[in-house]
Amino acid sequence: MAIIPNQCFRHLRITLPRIPKLPSSSFSSLSCSLAQEDLEHTHPDSPNTNNPTSYFPKRGQTLELVCESLAFKGKGLCKVTDTGFVVMCDRALPGERFIGRVTRKKGNYAEVTKLKTITPPRDVVDAPCEYALYCGGCKTQNLSYEAQIRAKEEQVRDLVIHVGRFSQKELELHGIMKPIVPCDIQFHYRNKMEFSFGPNKWLPKELLLEGHNGSESYALGLHAPGFFDKILNVDKCLLQTGPANKVLEAIQDCWRDPQFCLSPYNVRSHLGFLKHLMLRTGRHVSTGLPEVMVNFVTSSYKPELLKPLVDKVASFPEVVSVVNNVNTSVGNTSVGEEEHTLYGKSSIAEILRGLTFQISANSFFQTNTHQAEVLYKLIEECAGIRGDGSEVVLDLFCGTGTIGLTLARSVRHVYGYEVVPQAITDACLNAKINDIQNATFVQGDLNKIDENFGNNFPKPDIVISDPNRPGMHMKLIKFLLNLKAPRIVYVSCNPATCARDLDYLCHGVTEQNIEGCYKLKSIQPVDMFPHTPHIECVCLLELC
Ligand SMILES: C[S@@+](CC[C@H](N)C(=O)[O-])C[C@H]1O[C@@H](n2cnc3c(N)ncnc32)[C@H](O)[C@@H]1O
Protein backbone atom coordinates (compact mmCIF):
# COMPACT_ATOMS: atom_id res chain seq x y z
CA MET A 1 0.00 0.00 0.00
CA ALA A 2 1.19 3.49 -0.76
CA ILE A 3 2.51 5.58 2.12
CA ILE A 4 0.45 8.71 1.98
CA PRO A 5 1.71 11.93 3.55
CA ASN A 6 -0.72 13.50 5.98
CA GLN A 7 -0.94 16.83 4.18
CA CYS A 8 -2.58 15.04 1.26
CA PHE A 9 -5.76 14.75 3.31
CA ARG A 10 -6.22 18.43 4.02
CA HIS A 11 -9.08 18.70 1.57
CA LEU A 12 -10.85 15.61 2.83
CA ARG A 13 -10.55 16.63 6.43
CA ILE A 14 -12.88 19.57 6.22
CA THR A 15 -15.57 17.54 4.58
CA LEU A 16 -15.69 14.72 7.09
CA PRO A 17 -18.04 16.35 9.63
CA ARG A 18 -20.73 16.17 6.96
CA ILE A 19 -21.30 12.55 7.80
CA PRO A 20 -24.65 12.79 9.53
CA LYS A 21 -24.79 12.23 13.23
CA LEU A 22 -27.92 10.40 14.21
CA PRO A 23 -29.22 9.73 17.69
CA SER A 24 -27.56 6.73 19.25
CA SER A 25 -30.90 4.98 19.40
CA SER A 26 -30.97 4.83 15.62
CA PHE A 27 -29.51 1.69 14.22
CA SER A 28 -28.28 3.37 11.14
CA SER A 29 -26.09 5.59 13.24
CA LEU A 30 -24.35 2.53 14.58
CA SER A 31 -22.77 1.40 11.42
CA CYS A 32 -22.14 5.05 10.59
CA SER A 33 -20.19 5.35 13.82
CA LEU A 34 -17.95 2.56 12.70
CA ALA A 35 -17.79 3.90 9.19
CA GLN A 36 -16.72 7.21 10.65
CA GLU A 37 -13.97 5.43 12.52
CA ASP A 38 -12.83 3.92 9.25
CA LEU A 39 -13.03 7.23 7.41
CA GLU A 40 -10.98 8.88 10.15
CA HIS A 41 -8.58 5.97 10.18
CA THR A 42 -7.99 6.37 6.47
CA HIS A 43 -7.60 10.13 6.86
CA PRO A 44 -5.36 10.56 9.87
CA ASP A 45 -5.62 14.37 9.99
CA SER A 46 -9.37 14.36 10.38
CA PRO A 47 -10.83 16.09 13.42
CA ASN A 48 -12.59 14.23 16.16
CA THR A 49 -16.26 14.56 15.35
CA ASN A 50 -17.52 12.49 18.24
CA ASN A 51 -20.87 13.24 19.77
CA PRO A 52 -21.14 13.94 23.45
CA THR A 53 -23.58 11.62 25.13
CA SER A 54 -25.19 11.68 28.55
CA TYR A 55 -24.91 7.95 29.19
CA PHE A 56 -21.63 6.19 28.96
CA PRO A 57 -20.80 2.81 30.50
CA LYS A 58 -17.58 2.70 32.51
CA ARG A 59 -14.52 0.86 31.30
CA GLY A 60 -14.49 -2.60 32.92
CA GLN A 61 -18.27 -2.56 33.49
CA THR A 62 -20.10 -5.74 32.51
CA LEU A 63 -23.34 -5.54 30.56
CA GLU A 64 -25.92 -8.04 29.37
CA LEU A 65 -26.40 -7.38 25.68
CA VAL A 66 -28.19 -8.69 22.62
CA CYS A 67 -26.47 -8.43 19.26
CA GLU A 68 -28.93 -6.87 16.82
CA SER A 69 -26.99 -6.99 13.56
CA LEU A 70 -23.54 -6.96 12.03
CA ALA A 71 -21.98 -3.60 11.35
CA PHE A 72 -19.00 -2.37 9.44
CA LYS A 73 -15.88 -4.57 9.86
CA GLY A 74 -18.16 -7.43 10.90
CA LYS A 75 -18.56 -6.24 14.48
CA GLY A 76 -21.71 -7.19 16.36
CA LEU A 77 -23.90 -4.20 17.06
CA CYS A 78 -25.82 -4.02 20.36
CA LYS A 79 -27.77 -1.48 22.40
CA VAL A 80 -27.74 -1.06 26.16
CA THR A 81 -31.26 -1.67 27.52
CA ASP A 82 -33.17 1.50 28.54
CA THR A 83 -30.55 3.95 27.29
CA GLY A 84 -30.23 2.68 23.73
CA PHE A 85 -26.51 3.36 24.02
CA VAL A 86 -24.55 1.62 21.29
CA VAL A 87 -21.83 -0.93 21.91
CA MET A 88 -19.87 -2.98 19.43
CA CYS A 89 -18.53 -6.43 20.07
CA ASP A 90 -16.13 -8.39 17.95
CA ARG A 91 -17.47 -11.88 17.18
CA ALA A 92 -20.96 -11.26 18.56
CA LEU A 93 -23.52 -12.49 16.04
CA PRO A 94 -27.14 -11.40 15.40
CA GLY A 95 -29.55 -12.71 18.02
CA GLU A 96 -26.81 -13.66 20.48
CA ARG A 97 -27.46 -12.67 24.13
CA PHE A 98 -24.23 -12.38 26.02
CA ILE A 99 -22.31 -10.78 28.85
CA GLY A 100 -19.74 -8.28 27.65
CA ARG A 101 -17.11 -6.20 29.40
CA VAL A 102 -16.57 -2.60 28.28
CA THR A 103 -13.01 -2.25 27.01
CA ARG A 104 -12.94 1.19 25.45
CA LYS A 105 -14.78 4.32 24.54
CA LYS A 106 -14.95 5.17 20.87
CA GLY A 107 -16.73 8.35 19.84
CA ASN A 108 -20.44 7.88 20.49
CA TYR A 109 -20.24 4.18 21.21
CA ALA A 110 -18.18 1.76 23.29
CA GLU A 111 -16.46 -1.51 22.54
CA VAL A 112 -17.00 -4.60 24.62
CA THR A 113 -15.34 -7.99 24.81
CA LYS A 114 -17.62 -10.98 24.99
CA LEU A 115 -17.25 -12.88 28.27
CA LYS A 116 -20.04 -15.43 28.05
CA THR A 117 -22.85 -16.36 25.67
CA ILE A 118 -26.26 -16.69 27.35
CA THR A 119 -28.35 -17.47 24.25
CA PRO A 120 -26.74 -18.56 20.98
CA PRO A 121 -27.05 -16.41 17.84
CA ARG A 122 -29.74 -16.79 15.20
CA ASP A 123 -28.73 -18.56 11.98
CA VAL A 124 -25.85 -20.20 13.76
CA VAL A 125 -24.06 -23.11 12.10
CA ASP A 126 -21.15 -25.31 13.10
CA ALA A 127 -17.95 -23.71 11.85
CA PRO A 128 -16.11 -26.42 9.90
CA CYS A 129 -12.67 -24.99 10.72
CA GLU A 130 -11.18 -25.97 14.08
CA TYR A 131 -9.53 -22.54 14.40
CA ALA A 132 -12.58 -20.48 13.44
CA LEU A 133 -13.21 -19.18 16.96
CA TYR A 134 -9.66 -17.91 17.47
CA CYS A 135 -8.22 -17.06 14.09
CA GLY A 136 -8.67 -13.47 12.91
CA GLY A 137 -9.43 -14.51 9.31
CA CYS A 138 -12.92 -16.03 9.40
CA LYS A 139 -14.96 -14.02 11.87
CA THR A 140 -18.39 -15.24 10.79
CA GLN A 141 -17.80 -18.86 9.82
CA ASN A 142 -20.36 -19.93 12.44
CA LEU A 143 -23.07 -17.75 10.88
CA SER A 144 -25.04 -19.28 8.00
CA TYR A 145 -23.84 -18.00 4.65
CA GLU A 146 -27.29 -16.56 3.83
CA ALA A 147 -27.15 -14.50 7.05
CA GLN A 148 -23.58 -13.37 6.25
CA ILE A 149 -24.50 -11.95 2.87
CA ARG A 150 -27.73 -10.43 4.18
CA ALA A 151 -25.69 -8.56 6.79
CA LYS A 152 -23.21 -7.34 4.16
CA GLU A 153 -25.98 -6.07 1.92
CA GLU A 154 -27.59 -4.22 4.85
CA GLN A 155 -24.29 -2.54 5.70
CA VAL A 156 -23.84 -1.27 2.18
CA ARG A 157 -27.39 0.08 2.04
CA ASP A 158 -26.96 1.76 5.42
CA LEU A 159 -23.72 3.46 4.39
CA VAL A 160 -25.03 4.60 1.02
CA ILE A 161 -28.00 6.22 2.78
CA HIS A 162 -26.24 7.74 5.78
CA VAL A 163 -22.77 8.52 4.47
CA GLY A 164 -23.57 8.79 0.75
CA ARG A 165 -26.77 10.81 1.42
CA PHE A 166 -28.93 8.88 -1.05
CA SER A 167 -32.50 8.42 0.15
CA GLN A 168 -33.97 4.97 0.69
CA LYS A 169 -36.79 6.09 -1.60
CA GLU A 170 -34.52 6.95 -4.52
CA LEU A 171 -32.54 3.73 -4.06
CA GLU A 172 -35.78 1.75 -4.24
CA LEU A 173 -37.63 3.82 -6.83
CA HIS A 174 -34.84 3.62 -9.38
CA GLY A 175 -33.69 0.11 -8.43
CA ILE A 176 -30.22 1.50 -7.69
CA MET A 177 -29.35 -0.84 -4.86
CA LYS A 178 -28.90 -4.31 -6.32
CA PRO A 179 -29.01 -7.50 -4.24
CA ILE A 180 -25.59 -8.80 -3.23
CA VAL A 181 -23.99 -11.35 -5.55
CA PRO A 182 -23.08 -14.36 -3.38
CA CYS A 183 -19.93 -16.39 -3.88
CA ASP A 184 -20.76 -19.92 -5.10
CA ILE A 185 -17.59 -21.29 -3.60
CA GLN A 186 -17.44 -20.57 0.11
CA PHE A 187 -14.32 -22.51 1.05
CA HIS A 188 -10.93 -23.05 -0.61
CA TYR A 189 -11.48 -19.89 -2.67
CA ARG A 190 -8.26 -18.05 -1.83
CA ASN A 191 -5.42 -18.41 -4.31
CA LYS A 192 -2.91 -16.81 -1.93
CA MET A 193 -2.22 -17.23 1.77
CA GLU A 194 0.64 -15.98 3.86
CA PHE A 195 1.62 -17.81 7.04
CA SER A 196 4.19 -16.63 9.57
CA PHE A 197 6.79 -18.48 11.59
CA GLY A 198 7.23 -17.69 15.28
CA PRO A 199 9.15 -19.00 18.28
CA ASN A 200 6.06 -19.83 20.37
CA LYS A 201 2.61 -21.13 19.61
CA TRP A 202 -0.11 -18.73 20.72
CA LEU A 203 -3.10 -20.33 22.39
CA PRO A 204 -6.41 -18.65 23.26
CA LYS A 205 -7.34 -18.36 26.96
CA GLU A 206 -9.94 -21.13 26.70
CA LEU A 207 -7.35 -23.68 25.58
CA LEU A 208 -4.81 -22.53 28.17
CA LEU A 209 -7.47 -23.03 30.87
CA GLU A 210 -8.01 -26.56 29.54
CA GLY A 211 -4.34 -27.25 30.24
CA HIS A 212 -2.91 -26.93 26.71
CA ASN A 213 0.59 -25.53 26.58
CA GLY A 214 1.75 -23.72 23.51
CA SER A 215 4.67 -21.66 24.70
CA GLU A 216 7.17 -24.50 24.36
CA SER A 217 6.94 -25.08 20.65
CA TYR A 218 7.57 -23.23 17.42
CA ALA A 219 4.58 -21.99 15.43
CA LEU A 220 3.72 -21.69 11.77
CA GLY A 221 0.35 -20.15 11.11
CA LEU A 222 -1.66 -16.96 11.27
CA HIS A 223 -1.29 -13.95 13.51
CA ALA A 224 -3.50 -14.03 16.58
CA PRO A 225 -6.10 -11.27 16.14
CA GLY A 226 -4.56 -7.94 17.13
CA PHE A 227 -1.03 -9.26 17.78
CA PHE A 228 1.97 -8.78 15.52
CA ASP A 229 4.13 -11.15 17.58
CA LYS A 230 1.78 -14.04 18.40
CA ILE A 231 1.16 -16.89 15.98
CA LEU A 232 -1.76 -19.32 16.07
CA ASN A 233 -0.34 -22.58 14.72
CA VAL A 234 -2.40 -23.74 11.74
CA ASP A 235 -2.06 -27.14 10.03
CA LYS A 236 -4.74 -26.43 7.47
CA CYS A 237 -6.71 -23.39 6.31
CA LEU A 238 -10.15 -23.94 4.83
CA LEU A 239 -9.94 -20.78 2.76
CA GLN A 240 -6.92 -21.81 0.72
CA THR A 241 -6.86 -24.39 -2.06
CA GLY A 242 -6.50 -28.14 -1.51
CA PRO A 243 -3.01 -28.37 -3.09
CA ALA A 244 -1.82 -25.44 -0.95
CA ASN A 245 -3.07 -27.25 2.16
CA LYS A 246 -1.13 -30.39 1.17
CA VAL A 247 2.03 -28.28 0.98
CA LEU A 248 1.33 -26.58 4.30
CA GLU A 249 0.79 -29.94 6.02
CA ALA A 250 4.02 -31.33 4.54
CA ILE A 251 6.01 -28.34 5.80
CA GLN A 252 4.37 -28.52 9.23
CA ASP A 253 5.39 -32.20 9.39
CA CYS A 254 9.07 -31.54 9.05
CA TRP A 255 10.28 -27.98 9.62
CA ARG A 256 10.75 -28.39 13.38
CA ASP A 257 12.97 -31.48 12.92
CA PRO A 258 16.13 -30.60 14.94
CA GLN A 259 18.39 -32.14 12.29
CA PHE A 260 17.40 -29.36 9.86
CA CYS A 261 18.53 -26.61 12.29
CA LEU A 262 15.76 -24.26 11.12
CA SER A 263 14.78 -21.48 13.47
CA PRO A 264 11.69 -19.23 13.26
CA TYR A 265 12.30 -15.50 13.16
CA ASN A 266 11.57 -13.70 16.41
CA VAL A 267 10.02 -10.29 15.72
CA ARG A 268 11.14 -8.99 19.11
CA SER A 269 14.78 -10.16 19.25
CA HIS A 270 15.15 -10.11 15.44
CA LEU A 271 16.93 -13.44 15.61
CA GLY A 272 16.00 -16.51 13.59
CA PHE A 273 15.79 -17.51 9.93
CA LEU A 274 12.28 -18.42 8.72
CA LYS A 275 9.94 -15.42 8.50
CA HIS A 276 6.95 -16.31 6.31
CA LEU A 277 5.58 -19.00 4.07
CA MET A 278 3.51 -17.74 1.18
CA LEU A 279 1.50 -20.18 -0.92
CA ARG A 280 -0.05 -19.14 -4.22
CA THR A 281 -2.15 -21.30 -6.50
CA GLY A 282 -2.61 -20.66 -10.21
CA ARG A 283 -3.45 -22.81 -13.21
CA HIS A 284 -1.57 -24.37 -16.07
CA VAL A 285 -2.72 -22.40 -19.12
CA SER A 286 -3.32 -25.45 -21.34
CA THR A 287 -4.34 -28.20 -18.92
CA GLY A 288 -6.11 -25.98 -16.37
CA LEU A 289 -4.54 -28.07 -13.60
CA PRO A 290 -3.53 -26.31 -10.37
CA GLU A 291 0.00 -24.95 -10.11
CA VAL A 292 1.43 -23.98 -6.73
CA MET A 293 4.16 -21.49 -5.92
CA VAL A 294 5.90 -21.84 -2.55
CA ASN A 295 7.63 -18.70 -1.33
CA PHE A 296 9.90 -18.96 1.73
CA VAL A 297 10.63 -15.54 3.19
CA THR A 298 13.83 -15.64 5.23
CA SER A 299 16.02 -13.17 7.10
CA SER A 300 19.15 -14.16 5.16
CA TYR A 301 20.11 -16.09 2.04
CA LYS A 302 21.04 -19.66 3.08
CA PRO A 303 19.71 -22.02 0.40
CA GLU A 304 21.46 -25.00 2.00
CA LEU A 305 19.28 -24.55 5.10
CA LEU A 306 16.10 -24.49 3.01
CA LYS A 307 17.08 -27.51 0.89
CA PRO A 308 15.24 -30.22 2.93
CA LEU A 309 12.02 -28.17 2.76
CA VAL A 310 12.47 -27.44 -0.93
CA ASP A 311 13.04 -31.17 -1.67
CA LYS A 312 9.94 -32.07 0.30
CA VAL A 313 7.58 -29.61 -1.42
CA ALA A 314 9.08 -30.19 -4.87
CA SER A 315 7.94 -33.81 -4.63
CA PHE A 316 4.32 -32.63 -5.10
CA PRO A 317 3.41 -32.58 -8.81
CA GLU A 318 1.37 -29.39 -8.30
CA VAL A 319 4.38 -27.46 -7.02
CA VAL A 320 6.01 -25.84 -10.05
CA SER A 321 7.82 -22.98 -8.38
CA VAL A 322 9.78 -22.55 -5.13
CA VAL A 323 11.23 -19.12 -4.49
CA ASN A 324 13.05 -17.50 -1.61
CA ASN A 325 12.47 -13.85 -0.78
CA VAL A 326 15.29 -12.60 1.42
CA ASN A 327 14.15 -9.84 3.72
CA THR A 328 16.96 -8.63 5.99
CA SER A 329 14.96 -5.73 7.45
CA VAL A 330 13.48 -5.86 10.93
CA GLY A 331 10.04 -5.15 9.44
CA ASN A 332 7.61 -7.98 9.05
CA THR A 333 6.73 -7.77 5.38
CA SER A 334 7.09 -10.67 2.99
CA VAL A 335 8.60 -8.71 0.12
CA GLY A 336 12.30 -9.41 -0.03
CA GLU A 337 15.16 -7.22 -1.19
CA GLU A 338 16.30 -10.23 -3.22
CA GLU A 339 14.40 -13.11 -4.73
CA HIS A 340 15.97 -16.46 -5.65
CA THR A 341 14.29 -19.26 -7.54
CA LEU A 342 15.13 -22.51 -5.76
CA TYR A 343 13.07 -24.89 -7.86
CA GLY A 344 11.14 -24.70 -11.13
CA LYS A 345 9.80 -21.42 -12.50
CA SER A 346 9.86 -17.94 -10.98
CA SER A 347 6.15 -17.36 -11.62
CA ILE A 348 2.87 -19.18 -12.06
CA ALA A 349 -0.02 -18.41 -14.39
CA GLU A 350 -3.74 -17.74 -13.98
CA ILE A 351 -6.53 -17.30 -16.48
CA LEU A 352 -9.09 -14.55 -16.01
CA ARG A 353 -11.79 -13.59 -18.54
CA GLY A 354 -9.95 -15.60 -21.18
CA LEU A 355 -6.61 -13.81 -20.66
CA THR A 356 -3.43 -15.27 -19.22
CA PHE A 357 -1.68 -13.52 -16.33
CA GLN A 358 1.79 -14.26 -15.03
CA ILE A 359 1.91 -14.06 -11.25
CA SER A 360 5.24 -13.71 -9.50
CA ALA A 361 5.71 -13.98 -5.74
CA ASN A 362 5.01 -10.32 -5.03
CA SER A 363 2.67 -9.29 -7.81
CA PHE A 364 -0.88 -8.26 -6.99
CA PHE A 365 -3.63 -10.51 -8.27
CA GLN A 366 -7.25 -10.81 -7.16
CA THR A 367 -7.17 -13.44 -4.38
CA ASN A 368 -10.49 -15.10 -5.25
CA THR A 369 -10.07 -16.07 -8.91
CA HIS A 370 -13.52 -17.65 -9.24
CA GLN A 371 -15.34 -14.56 -7.92
CA ALA A 372 -12.98 -12.20 -9.80
CA GLU A 373 -14.53 -13.64 -13.01
CA VAL A 374 -17.95 -12.64 -11.67
CA LEU A 375 -16.70 -9.21 -10.54
CA TYR A 376 -14.99 -8.42 -13.84
CA LYS A 377 -18.06 -9.49 -15.80
CA LEU A 378 -20.13 -7.05 -13.73
CA ILE A 379 -17.56 -4.30 -14.34
CA GLU A 380 -17.68 -4.99 -18.06
CA GLU A 381 -21.50 -4.87 -18.05
CA CYS A 382 -21.46 -1.57 -16.11
CA ALA A 383 -18.87 -0.12 -18.49
CA GLY A 384 -21.46 -0.62 -21.24
CA ILE A 385 -18.82 -0.75 -23.95
CA ARG A 386 -20.28 -0.39 -27.43
CA GLY A 387 -17.83 -2.91 -28.88
CA ASP A 388 -17.07 -0.94 -32.05
CA GLY A 389 -13.50 -0.27 -30.91
CA SER A 390 -14.01 3.48 -30.71
CA GLU A 391 -13.95 4.14 -26.97
CA VAL A 392 -11.18 5.16 -24.59
CA VAL A 393 -10.96 3.69 -21.09
CA LEU A 394 -9.10 5.27 -18.17
CA ASP A 395 -8.24 2.54 -15.63
CA LEU A 396 -7.37 4.27 -12.34
CA PHE A 397 -5.62 2.20 -9.64
CA CYS A 398 -5.00 -0.42 -12.33
CA GLY A 399 -2.70 -2.73 -10.34
CA THR A 400 -1.32 -5.29 -12.78
CA GLY A 401 -3.75 -4.10 -15.45
CA THR A 402 -6.27 -6.92 -15.16
CA ILE A 403 -9.47 -4.85 -15.49
CA GLY A 404 -8.18 -2.65 -18.31
CA LEU A 405 -6.75 -5.60 -20.22
CA THR A 406 -10.03 -7.52 -20.07
CA LEU A 407 -11.73 -4.47 -21.65
CA ALA A 408 -8.96 -3.67 -24.15
CA ARG A 409 -10.20 -6.12 -26.78
CA SER A 410 -13.33 -4.10 -27.42
CA VAL A 411 -12.09 -0.49 -27.07
CA ARG A 412 -9.72 1.88 -28.89
CA HIS A 413 -7.25 2.32 -26.05
CA VAL A 414 -6.83 1.71 -22.31
CA TYR A 415 -4.75 4.06 -20.12
CA GLY A 416 -3.88 2.60 -16.72
CA TYR A 417 -2.47 4.48 -13.71
CA GLU A 418 -0.96 2.84 -10.65
CA VAL A 419 1.52 3.82 -7.92
CA VAL A 420 3.49 0.56 -7.54
CA PRO A 421 6.26 0.35 -10.18
CA GLN A 422 6.37 -3.48 -10.08
CA ALA A 423 2.63 -3.64 -10.79
CA ILE A 424 3.16 -1.43 -13.85
CA THR A 425 5.95 -3.73 -15.06
CA ASP A 426 3.61 -6.71 -14.60
CA ALA A 427 0.77 -4.88 -16.39
CA CYS A 428 3.02 -4.26 -19.42
CA LEU A 429 4.14 -7.90 -19.35
CA ASN A 430 0.52 -9.06 -19.14
CA ALA A 431 -0.37 -6.90 -22.15
CA LYS A 432 2.51 -8.47 -24.07
CA ILE A 433 1.65 -12.07 -23.12
CA ASN A 434 -1.89 -11.52 -24.36
CA ASP A 435 -0.78 -9.67 -27.46
CA ILE A 436 -2.65 -6.53 -26.45
CA GLN A 437 -1.16 -3.44 -28.07
CA ASN A 438 -3.77 -0.82 -27.25
CA ALA A 439 -2.98 -0.45 -23.53
CA THR A 440 -0.63 2.06 -21.91
CA PHE A 441 0.29 1.76 -18.23
CA VAL A 442 1.79 4.64 -16.32
CA GLN A 443 3.29 4.69 -12.84
CA GLY A 444 2.10 7.60 -10.72
CA ASP A 445 0.58 8.56 -7.41
CA LEU A 446 -3.08 9.44 -7.88
CA ASN A 447 -3.07 11.27 -4.54
CA LYS A 448 -0.58 13.75 -5.93
CA ILE A 449 -1.93 14.61 -9.35
CA ASP A 450 -1.59 18.21 -10.54
CA GLU A 451 -3.22 20.29 -13.27
CA ASN A 452 -1.18 18.46 -15.92
CA PHE A 453 -2.82 15.13 -15.15
CA GLY A 454 -4.97 14.32 -18.12
CA ASN A 455 -2.70 15.94 -20.71
CA ASN A 456 -1.27 12.59 -21.76
CA PHE A 457 -4.46 10.79 -22.65
CA PRO A 458 -7.55 11.71 -24.66
CA LYS A 459 -10.82 12.33 -22.88
CA PRO A 460 -12.05 8.89 -21.79
CA ASP A 461 -15.52 7.57 -22.51
CA ILE A 462 -15.35 5.32 -19.49
CA VAL A 463 -13.41 5.71 -16.26
CA ILE A 464 -12.80 2.66 -14.09
CA SER A 465 -11.69 3.56 -10.59
CA ASP A 466 -10.68 0.77 -8.20
CA PRO A 467 -8.92 2.42 -5.24
CA ASN A 468 -7.82 0.61 -2.12
CA ARG A 469 -9.47 1.16 1.27
CA PRO A 470 -8.93 4.93 1.67
CA GLY A 471 -10.91 5.58 -1.50
CA MET A 472 -10.22 8.49 -3.83
CA HIS A 473 -8.29 11.61 -2.88
CA MET A 474 -10.10 14.94 -3.20
CA LYS A 475 -7.68 15.93 -5.98
CA LEU A 476 -8.85 12.96 -8.00
CA ILE A 477 -12.51 13.66 -7.22
CA LYS A 478 -12.04 17.23 -8.49
CA PHE A 479 -10.24 15.95 -11.57
CA LEU A 480 -13.11 13.57 -12.39
CA LEU A 481 -15.73 16.28 -11.82
CA ASN A 482 -13.86 18.51 -14.31
CA LEU A 483 -13.17 15.71 -16.76
CA LYS A 484 -16.87 14.84 -17.07
CA ALA A 485 -16.39 11.40 -18.64
CA PRO A 486 -19.82 9.98 -19.60
CA ARG A 487 -19.47 6.94 -17.30
CA ILE A 488 -17.58 6.06 -14.16
CA VAL A 489 -17.45 2.51 -12.87
CA TYR A 490 -16.35 2.75 -9.26
CA VAL A 491 -15.10 -0.56 -7.84
CA SER A 492 -14.59 -0.47 -4.10
CA CYS A 493 -13.37 -2.74 -1.32
CA ASN A 494 -14.53 -0.33 1.40
CA PRO A 495 -18.22 0.63 1.39
CA ALA A 496 -17.62 3.55 3.79
CA THR A 497 -15.16 5.45 1.60
CA CYS A 498 -17.13 4.34 -1.45
CA ALA A 499 -20.30 5.97 -0.05
CA ARG A 500 -18.35 9.16 0.72
CA ASP A 501 -16.90 9.35 -2.81
CA LEU A 502 -20.29 8.66 -4.41
CA ASP A 503 -21.66 11.56 -2.37
CA TYR A 504 -18.92 13.89 -3.66
CA LEU A 505 -19.35 12.82 -7.27
CA CYS A 506 -23.16 13.07 -7.22
CA HIS A 507 -23.92 15.77 -4.66
CA GLY A 508 -20.70 17.79 -4.74
CA VAL A 509 -18.59 19.17 -1.91
CA THR A 510 -20.54 22.05 -0.38
CA GLU A 511 -17.64 23.39 1.74
CA GLN A 512 -15.56 23.84 -1.37
CA ASN A 513 -18.31 25.10 -3.62
CA ILE A 514 -17.92 22.10 -5.86
CA GLU A 515 -20.95 20.76 -7.60
CA GLY A 516 -21.53 17.09 -8.28
CA CYS A 517 -22.39 16.14 -11.84
CA TYR A 518 -23.03 12.40 -11.71
CA LYS A 519 -26.10 10.29 -11.16
CA LEU A 520 -25.80 7.01 -9.29
CA LYS A 521 -27.34 4.39 -11.56
CA SER A 522 -26.52 1.22 -9.65
CA ILE A 523 -24.63 -0.13 -6.70
CA GLN A 524 -23.94 -3.83 -6.68
CA PRO A 525 -22.35 -5.48 -3.61
CA VAL A 526 -20.36 -8.62 -4.42
CA ASP A 527 -19.18 -11.15 -1.86
CA MET A 528 -15.57 -11.89 -2.72
CA PHE A 529 -14.61 -13.20 0.73
CA PRO A 530 -17.13 -15.47 2.49
CA HIS A 531 -16.76 -15.74 6.30
CA THR A 532 -14.85 -12.44 6.49
CA PRO A 533 -16.25 -8.90 6.90
CA HIS A 534 -14.89 -7.73 3.53
CA ILE A 535 -17.38 -6.34 0.99
CA GLU A 536 -16.73 -5.38 -2.63
CA CYS A 537 -19.06 -3.06 -4.57
CA VAL A 538 -19.37 -2.15 -8.22
CA CYS A 539 -21.08 1.21 -8.77
CA LEU A 540 -22.14 2.81 -12.00
CA LEU A 541 -22.27 6.60 -12.32
CA GLU A 542 -23.50 8.45 -15.37
CA LEU A 543 -22.93 12.08 -16.23
CA CYS A 544 -26.06 14.15 -15.52
C1 LIG B 1 -7.90 -2.62 -5.01
S1 LIG B 1 -6.39 -2.62 -5.91
C2 LIG B 1 -7.00 -2.71 -7.54
C3 LIG B 1 -6.08 -3.35 -8.53
C4 LIG B 1 -6.67 -3.69 -9.89
N1 LIG B 1 -7.62 -2.74 -10.36
C5 LIG B 1 -7.22 -5.08 -9.91
O1 LIG B 1 -8.43 -5.28 -10.01
O2 LIG B 1 -6.44 -6.04 -9.82
C6 LIG B 1 -5.91 -0.94 -5.72
C7 LIG B 1 -4.65 -0.56 -6.42
O3 LIG B 1 -4.42 0.83 -6.21
C8 LIG B 1 -3.04 1.06 -6.08
N2 LIG B 1 -2.86 2.35 -5.38
C9 LIG B 1 -3.00 2.60 -4.07
N3 LIG B 1 -2.79 3.89 -3.81
C10 LIG B 1 -2.52 4.48 -4.99
C11 LIG B 1 -2.21 5.81 -5.37
N4 LIG B 1 -2.14 6.78 -4.47
N5 LIG B 1 -1.99 6.08 -6.67
C12 LIG B 1 -2.08 5.09 -7.59
N6 LIG B 1 -2.35 3.81 -7.29
C13 LIG B 1 -2.57 3.50 -6.01
C14 LIG B 1 -2.55 -0.16 -5.31
O4 LIG B 1 -1.17 -0.36 -5.48
C15 LIG B 1 -3.40 -1.27 -5.93
O5 LIG B 1 -2.76 -1.86 -7.02
Description:
The chain has about 550 residues and is an alpha/beta fold. Among the domains are: about 160 residues, OB fold (Dihydrolipoamide Acetyltransferase, E2P) (Beta Barrel), CATH 2.40.50.1070; about 180 residues, Vaccinia Virus protein VP39 (Rossmann fold, 3-Layer(aba) Sandwich), CATH 3.40.50. It has 12 helices and 21 strands. The strands form 4 sheets. It has a 7-stranded mixed beta sheet, covered by helices on one side. A hairpin with a 6-residue loop joins strand 9 and strand 10. The longest helix has 18 residues. The radius of gyration is 24 Å and the shape is globular. The two termini are about 35 Å apart. The N terminus is likely disordered. The site of S-adenosylmethionine has 19 residues, from helix 9. One of its GO terms (biological process) is RNA methylation. InterPro entries: MeTrfase_TrmA_CS, NA-bd_OB-fold, SAM-dependent_MTases_sf, TRAM_dom, U5_MeTrfase_fam. Belongs to the class I-like SAM-binding methyltransferase superfamily. RNA M5U methyltransferase family. This is Putative RNA methyltransferase CT0009. It comes from Senna tora.
Q: What is the compact description of this entry?
A:
It contains twelve helices and 21 strands. The protein is an alpha/beta fold.
Q: Class by helix and strand content?
A: alpha/beta
Strand content: 25-35%
Q: What is the CATH homologous superfamily assignment of the domain at 368-543? A: Vaccinia Virus protein VP39
**What is the straight-line distance between the termini?**
33 Å
Q: Can you list the strand order of the major beta sheet?
A: 8-7-6-9-10-11-12
What is the CATH third-level topology name of the domain at 368-543? Rossmann fold
Sketch the major β-sheet: 7 strands, mixed
Low-confidence residue ranges: 1-30, 41-52
Roughly what percent helix?
A: 10-25%
Oligomer: single chain
Mean model confidence by pLDDT: 88
Q: What is the alpha-carbon Rg in Å?
A: 24 Å
GO molecular function, one term: RNA methyltransferase activity
Protein name: Putative RNA methyltransferase CT0009
Binding site for S-adenosyl-L-methionine: 366, 397, 418, 466
Keywords: Methyltransferase, S-adenosyl-L-methionine, Transferase
